């Protein structure tokens, strides 16, 4: 299969970021969004639709959903399923959580529509100089048209991504331990208002960078990582326990030292 006709639902910064590479590869793109991106779409050579119904009636091979985690269910539930053009065969999501969209897509979409759940582990910042060696996770939830799915995945293979086939459940389990914890530490450092000092160690510079990177993402994204990943709650509890344990170790050492000092005096 050659070039795809891809309809993007949700044309914010992440949708635009993916679209630029897809256009560069020669795919035909259409987009729709709550905000009016018609002018930007015109500049990029993308047809912009004011409402999702018109986009779905167009002849698309792929519908790529680039909404936020928090608005995903609302967008999907308000989609006029009866308007799907029969040639629209593959639905793809790019959320940072995976069981949530998998469940919704399986529940809301007619059986004849294929489903591919994905998580590009990069964004406009980390992917600004290309996608080479950046991880692209995917789960072939329901695929009948192998050609369209393969051609879509080839977009990321061509750019040099590390292609990682993984179940949505396994993704969420690992993401709770990695991405969610990273964001939580970053948000905690922001609450503490950490800033560079004249005597920064390399380690502290890394923490300041983490704080700054984390708060650039919206709180909606962060809360979505918590609300729609069933493994995140336990990781938050684990983090609290770990901090408490470290504090106990310090207090114990302090008590031991004070005991030694008393004995010596």
Automatic annotation (TrEMBL):
One GO molecular-function entry: prephenate dehydrogenase (NAD+) activity
Domain of life: Eukaryota
Name of the protein in its database record: Putative arogenate dehydrogenase (NADP(+))
Species: Lupinus albus
GO biological process: tyrosine biosynthetic process
Gene3D superfamilies for the chain: NAD(P)-binding Rossmann-like Domain
InterPro entries documented for this protein: NAD(P)-bd_dom_sf, PDH_N, Prephen_DH, TYRAAT1/2, TYRAAT2_C
């Amino acid at each position: 299969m050659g070039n795809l006709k891809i309809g993007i639902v949700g044309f914010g910064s992440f949708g635009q970021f993916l679209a630029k590479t897809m256009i560069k590869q020669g795919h035909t793109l259409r987009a729709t969004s709550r905000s009016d991106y018609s002018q930007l779409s015109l500049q990029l050579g993308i047809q912009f639709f004011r409402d999702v119904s018109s986009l779905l009636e167009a002849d698309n091979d792929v519908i790529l959903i680039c909404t936020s985690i928090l608005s995903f269910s609302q967008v999907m539930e308000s989609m006029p399923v009866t308007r799907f053009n029969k040639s629209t065969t593959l639905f793809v999501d790019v959320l940072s959580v995976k069981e949530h969209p998998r469940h919704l897509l399986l529940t809301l979409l007619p059986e004849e529509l294929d489903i591919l759940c994905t998580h590009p582990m990069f964004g406009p910042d980390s992917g600004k100089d290309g996608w080479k060696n950046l991880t692209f996770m995917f789960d072939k939830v329901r695929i009948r048209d192998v050609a369209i799915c393969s051609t879509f995945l080839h977009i990321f293979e061509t750019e040099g991504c590390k292609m990682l086939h993984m179940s949505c459940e396994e993704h969420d389990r690992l993401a709770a331990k990695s991405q969610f914890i990273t964001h939580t530490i970053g948000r905690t450092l922001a609450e503490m208002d950490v800033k560079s000092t004249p005597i920064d160690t390399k380690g502290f510079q890394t923490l300041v960078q983490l704080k700054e990177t984390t708060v650039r993402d919206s709180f909606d994204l962060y809360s979505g990582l918590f609300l729609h990943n069933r493994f995140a709650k336990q990781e938050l509890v684990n983090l609290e326990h770990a901090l408490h344990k470290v504090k106990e170790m310090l207090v114990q050492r302090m008590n031991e030292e004070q005991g030694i000092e008393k004995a010596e005096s």
